[in-house]
Structure formats: C-alpha cells, structure tokens
Design brief:
elongated, single chain, alpha+beta
Length: about 240
C-alpha cells in the first residue's frame, strides 16, 4: 500500500463518480438498443398490409401498426400540439377526432405538421367535410405516455393548443367512446406535412454518448491511479527528519 497513496478526498470523489459514469454509459447502450428495436418494428410494420380498427384492438403490441379507416372528421374539436419543429421552423401538429364507421369508434388522427410563424394568430387550415378512406399508423410514444394538458385556448375554446395529448382524456371530455392511441396519417388528401420521425435520437447517437461516458470513466480512473502513484513517489523521496 505504500506504493499507492491517492488520498482520502480523491478516493471519495472516484468512489462517487466512477459508478455513475459507468451506469450512464450502460443506460445509453440500453436506450440505443431500445431505439434499434423500435426502428426494426417500424420498418416491418410499414411493409405489412393495413388492418381494420377491430383487428387493431385485438393486438397486444400495436405500435406502428398500419390501419385503414373510413369515416369523417370532427372539425370543431381540434388540438394543436405545440413546440413541433421541422427544418428549424416552429409549428404545430394538427390532431382531430375522426369517426370510424366500421368500428363505431372515435380516433384521434394526427394530420401532420403546419408552420406557426405568428403565435398571435391561430394557424389556418381546412378540414375535409366528406367521408374519407384513409391510412394511418399507430403512434405509441417511447417512455411516458401522452397526457392532456390544458393550455391557453382560443376565445371560443377550440382549437386548443396543448403541449401533450392523451386520447382517453379527450374522449372523456367529449363524452365519446374512442381508441386510446394516437394515429398518424400517412401522406394523402387529408394530411399536412407528415414526415414522421421514428425516434427523436438515432441508436448510433446513443452509442456515441455511451462511448463518451465510458471514456470519462476510464480517464477518471487513470487519473486516480496516476495521482496515487505520484503521491507515493513523493512520500518516498521526502527527507527524513528523525534524529540520528
């Protein structure tokens, strides 16, 4: 032990930080693998034929499943999902109730992104009035589920600007029976800009962050070893003051 004297404070710091850095690295690896699985599921679902809402309700894992619906929009109860950007431009995603005639359920369809250059003026858009046959895919958010959060509504109450959306809360407010998932419209006559990202951060980025955390842990441990050996050498070379 005389050849290694790191000191009490550096030992306490390393004991505290080193496990945290390692844990953060493994957390990033786990997140990357989770995102990789989601991308694979999404790619597989995009190749599958669309199914009905009745079939969707029987699925245990509905994420990214393509569905075909037929019915009409409710233009009176529109949600504007705030803080959505495309190519550096601020905007909103437009979500509207849609009545599926085959299943008899209301669906919350995300029609896509619209720019919102002036927040003093509600974005203007048109809603089809005739029955439509549309295709969409189920969106299940990664992590915490959407929650309906009241924001500052327009003077008439609708459209309502929200930061998060939970379909079940909307159906409860409107007194309707509806599907618990958000459905994202595929490009078509009723959609706006619908270039949906599968994940906000790619699996490769998570791997890069994991490497950074592990590198910091290695650097901290290497510095700790160097400090301990350096202190031990200085202690051995100190002159002795013992009386002869």
């Amino acid at each position: 032990m005389s050849a290694f004297r790191p000191g009490l404070v550096p030992s306490a710091v390393v004991l505290l930080l080193f496990p945290c850095l390692i844990a953060l690295g493994f957390w990033q690896l786990a997140r990357g693998e989770e995102k990789r699985e989601l991308v694979a599921v999404h790619q597989a679902q995009q190749l599958a034929a669309p199914i009905s809402i009745d079939e969707l309700e029987r699925l245990a894992e509905p994420a990214y499943t393509r569905v075909q619906v037929q019915g009409f929009f409710d233009a009176r109860h529109t949600l504007l999902l705030d803080n959505r950007t495309r190519n550096g431009k601020a905007g909103v995603e437009v979500l509207q109730p849609f009545y599926d005639q085959a299943s008899g359920l209301w669906l919350l369809l995300n029609r896509g992104w619209l720019p919102w250059p002036d927040r003093r003026i509600t974005p203007s858009f048109a809603t089809p009035e005739t029955p439509l046959r549309l295709q969409a895919s189920v969106y299940v958010p990664l992590g915490e589920a959407f929650q309906l959060q009241a924001a500052q509504p327009s003077p008439s109450g609708w459209p309502r600007v929200v930061s998060e959306v939970k379909p079940d809360a909307l159906w409860q407010q409107l007194g309707r029976g509806g599907l618990s998932y958000e459905l994202r419209l595929q490009p078509g006559p009723a959609s706006f800009q619908s270039d949906w990202p599968v994940v906000a951060m790619s699996p490769d980025k998570h791997l890069g962050y994991a490497v950074q955390w592990f590198a910091l842990a290695a650097a901290l441990f290497g510095l700790y070893i160097y400090l301990g050996l350096s202190n031990a050498r200085e202690t051995r070379h100190e002159p002795s003051h013992r009386p002869v």
